[in-house]
Design a protein that fits this description.
By secondary structure, the protein is mainly α. The chain has one domain: EF-hand (Recoverin, domain 1, Orthogonal Bundle), CATH 1.10.238. Helices cover about 65% and strands about 0% of the residues. It starts with a helix and ends with a helix.
C-alpha cells in the first residue's frame, strides 16, 4: 500500500509543472495574437464545452482575452 501511495504522490509532483503550463495564457495562445480560441484551448488540453467557453467569453466576441481566460482558469 505504501508503494501505491508513494507512486501516486510522485506522479502528482511530476504532473504539477505540466498542469501549471496549461493554465499559462501565453502557452494556450498558440498563435500569439493575444486571444484564445476554443480550438487553441482544446489543443492545450482544456475540455470546455461550447457553452462553457461562451460563458467565459464575457464580451461575447468569440475569443477569450487574457483576463477572461485567467478568470476561468483560476476557477478550475
Amino acid at each position: 500500500m505504501k508503494k501505491v501511495v508513494l507512486a501516486l504522490g510522485l506522479a502528482a509532483l511530476l504532473a504539477g509543472p505540466a498542469l501549471a503550463q496549461e493554465m499559462d495564457f501565453t502557452a494556450v495562445d498558440a498563435d500569439g495574437d493575444g486571444q484564445v480560441t476554443m480550438e487553441e484551448a482544446a489543443g492545450a488540453g482544456w475540455d470546455w464545452t461550447e457553452e462553457q467557453f461562451k460563458a467565459a467569453d464575457a464580451d461575447g466576441n468569440g475569443v477569450l482575452s487574457q483576463e477572461e481566460f485567467e478568470a476561468v482558469a483560476s476557477a478550475e
